[in-house]
Structures are given as C-alpha cells and as structure tokens.
Design a protein that fits this description.
Blueprint lengths: L1 H18 L2 E8 L10 E5 L4 E5 L5 E6 L3 E8 L6 E8 L2 E8 L25 E7 H6 L8 H4 L6 E3 L5 E3 L7 E5 L2 E2 L17 E9 L11 E7 L7 E5 L5 E3 L3 E3 L5 E9 L3 E15 L9 E18 L2 E17 L11 E19 L2 E18 L7 E2 L2 E2 L6 E10 L13 E3 L10 E5 L7
Parallel strand pairs: 1-7, 11-14
Antiparallel strand pairs: 1-4, 2-3, 2-5, 5-6, 8-13, 9-10, 11-12, 13-14, 15-18, 16-17, 18-19, 19-20, 20-21, 21-22, 22-23, 23-26, 24-25, 26-27, 26-28
Length: about 450
C-alpha cells in the first residue's frame, strides 16, 4: 500500500511538469516574404532567457519549460530590429512569423548598443557582413565603385591596380556570388563585373573551413546580395551634373551618374528594382599636339532584379546584369603617342533564374540556372615596327586579341544544389571545355 501511494504521488508531480512545456516555432522573412537566414532571435521573461539563429529557410525553434508572457526580439545586419515584441505562449506548440524591413533610408543617427550575437556551434567559418546602408554612408574615396567599398571589410585590401585581396589571397582565389550564382569571370577567374552600389543590399564574406560547395574559393567567398523593390515606388539619382575643366579648351571631367528605380509590378505579389550607373573619364595630355592629345573612356552597367511570389511558399527570382566598357587609346601619355596605344572593348551578360519552394518544417528547395558570357577585345592602333627611342615609343606591331568566355552554373548557396553543373566554353560553337584566346589579323603570326 505504501509503494502504491508513493507511485501515485510521483505520477501526480510528473504530469504537471510535462503539461507545462511550451514550444515556439516560426520564420523570419523580409517585406516580400523571402526568408532571412542568420537572424538572431531572443526570447526573454523574468524567469528565462533563450537565444537562437534562423536557418537558411528563415525557420527557428525555441523549447521552453513553461508557458507565459515573453518579449520577442529579432535582428539582422541591414534590417530594422524587432525589439521587445510582447507575446503570450500557451501550452504545447506556438507559431509566429517575424517580418524584418530592410534599411533603406536614414534621416538621423542615434547611439545604440547592439546585443551580443548568438553562438551557432554548427558554423565552422568566420563571417563578416557589410550592409548596403554602411556602403552608402561610410566615407571612402570614389564612392561610385563597389570595389572601393569592399575595403571597408576588415580582411580586405586593395592593390594599386584596384584588385581586391581577401585574407592575403590572390584575386582568383576568392569566389564571388551574385544572389547565389558564380560571378567570377570565366576567363580570368577574377571579379571583372561592375555593379552599382545602390543595388547592393549586403556583402557577406566567409573564410576559414569553407565547405566544398563553394568550389575554388580557397581564400574566402563573398556573397553579393541585391535588393528588391517593395509596394512603394522609389527612385534615386546621384552625380547627374558633369564637371567641366579647362585643358586646351573646355572638356568634361570625370562623370559618374547613377540612377535607381524600384517598386511594385503587382502590389503584394511582384516587385522589381533597376540600378544603372556610368563612368566617363577624359584625359588630356598637354605636351601632345592637338588631335592626338586626349583619350576618353566609358563604363556602363545595369542590373535588373525581379521577384514574383507565385504562392506564399513559392518565390521566383530573375536577374540580368549588363556591363559594357569602351576605352580607345588606352595607355596614351607623353612618351606613348596614339600609334602605340590600344583600343579596349569589353562586355558582359549575366542572366540568372531561381525558383525557391518552402515545404515547411525547415525544408527548402531551390532550382536555378545562370549564364555568364563575357567578351574582351584589344585592337592596336599602330601598323609599323615597335621602336623604343630616347624620346619614347614610336610604333608598335601587335595582334588583335579577342577573348570570349561562357560559364553556366546552378545556385551556389549554403543549401546544396540539386544538380551541380559548371561549364566553361567559348562563344563560338560552345563545344570546348575551356576558354580560348583567339588571335587574328596578325601579320607577325603569318611569318
């Protein structure tokens, strides 16, 4: 009788404890219902405090010992913080959706204190994040160049030619991705693309024990994430008035206009953003005769990005990046007259498509395809022999140099792709497995 009574007392004490357990699950998304991974979630009450991090699908989970009133907070670089949101948890399962709005405009600055980030024991890499607001607000020279903005990262340096080196590695040892797709040039393996700084939502650099899915990024990987419009029409324009200087007459100086437009295609379902920028540079050599004393160059880029929510759990993304550059008489100087210069022309088309499906319970599938096509041509302006004299170079005999490359890939995200496919090929025929340099119109080649 005593043993039976003791068993009943233990059972009576155990059942209220099991009944009092509570569980909170949810997702963190942006204003367009796209998942936000790596968001830090904090749940606090007078008796308990929990922290967790959202997974690549934006999902998170907190197991609590007792229901009651809690305050919920969520934050992520580049987004406005959700602070001390009151929430009442019941017994059993509870579900919530947190929406983080991206930082787009800032009219005043205040002193704030950031909460310490949660420790994710599943990560084996070191990460640094540079938000789009930091890129636009931080002072650095030549603010129209995204390459110069990369110097704001603590582990990135820029060489004299403008190339970016991360963790001391070479330019071709860093894997660059644009919205999850490989952006490295198919021929050089470097970052040759030009992007408007207004189009970038964040730069995320990962280094250390990098997973094999990131391929050749032995030094680091840099994920360039672009923004999408919302239900409000927004536009911006910068540096639209060119500078004028007097060098043997009035000439246009460096001119870097930028323009951005974003908004809804269909409110609540489809959005777009378009960012364009240009750079015009003109140099005048005072010592050379008129007509042979100046050179001008153009660099143009345009990035169009769209998002369509086919269903609340199915999001379709598209993007198209266009780069074009034209630099006649490259290398013109006092000792290098026009016959020794080179006309340089380059263009790039980068198209990517991605379909993202969320199945619930932390399951996410992505299907995507990208095509990166580049072309570069160098045309010498001299037709005689190449001579070096005490007065400088006289003429040159060079070959026209054409380079074409084509790369196709699938998403390179932290969620492994379903079918990994990377292929390099030239534009002509698209049958060779490696890039090819084409030499043509070269008299010396026929000797």
């Amino acid at each position: 009788m005593v043993g039976t009574l003791g068993l009943l007392v233990i059972s009576a004490l155990a059942f209220p404890v099991a009944y009092a357990e509570s569980r909170l699950t949810g997702r963190v998304t942006d204003a367009n219902s796209a998942p936000v991974s790596g968001a830090r979630i904090a749940l606090q009450s007078p008796a308990a405090s929990l922290q967790t991090v959202s997974d690549p699908t934006g999902a998170f989970r907190c197991d609590l010992t007792a229901p009651g009133d809690y305050s919920l907070s969520a934050e992520h670089e580049g987004y406005f913080q959700v602070k001390d949101r009151a929430i009442q948890l019941r017994d059993g399962a509870n579900e919530v959706t947190l929406v983080l709005n991206p930082v787009r405009e800032q009219f005043e600055s205040v002193q704030v204190s950031a909460s310490p980030p949660g420790i994710d024991f599943d990560k084996t890499v070191s990460e640094q994040v540079l938000s789009g607001a930091d890129i636009l607000e931080a002072p650095y020279p030549t603010t129209h160049s995204l390459r110069n903005a990369m110097r704001l990262l603590p582990n990135a340096i820029q060489d004299s030619a403008g190339g970016i080196h991360i963790n001391g590695g070479g330019q071709e040892q860093v894997l660059y991705t644009l919205d999850g797709f490989n952006l490295n040039d198919p021929l050089t393996g470097r970052l040759e693309s030009r992007l408007s700084v207004e189009a970038v939502r964040s730069l995320e650099v990962s280094s250390g024990a990098i997973p094999a899915e990131f391929g050749k990024g032995s030094a680091a990987t840099m994920a360039v994430k672009t923004g999408t419009g919302d239900d409000k029409l927004r536009y911006s324009g910068t540096n639209f008035v060119p500078g004028v200087a007097s060098h043997k007459g009035l000439v246009l100086q460096d001119w870097t206009p930028r323009f951005g437009l974003s908004g809804p295609i269909e409110k609540g379902r489809a959005w777009f953003s378009d960012s364009a920028d240009a750079q015009y540079t003109q140099h005048v050599i005072e010592e050379l005769p008129r007509g042979h004393d100046r050179t001008a160059s153009w660099n143009l880029s345009n990035l169009l990005h769209t998002q369509v929510n086919l269903t609340p759990s199915n999001i379709f993304y598209t993007g198209f990046l266009l780069n074009y550059s034209y630099a006649p008489r490259s290398g013109l100087s006092v000792l290098d007259p026009p016959p020794t210069t080179i006309d340089q022309r380059a263009r790039q088309w980068f198209l990517h498509l991605k379909d993202q499906v969320y199945f619930g319970h932390g399951a996410l599938a992505e299907f995507g395809f990208a095509s990166n096509q580049t072309f570069r041509r160098e045309i010498p302006q001299g037709h005689g022999l190449y001579l070096l004299t005490p007065d400088g170079q006289i003429r040159q005999l060079l070959c026209r140099f054409d380079r074409e490359g084509l790369a196709r890939s699938v998403p390179d995200q932290r969620v492994p792709p379903v079918v990994p496919l990377v292929r390099l090929a030239p534009n002509q025929g698209r049958r060779r497995s490696r890039p090819r340099a084409l030499l043509a119109e070269c008299p010396a080649h026929r000797l």
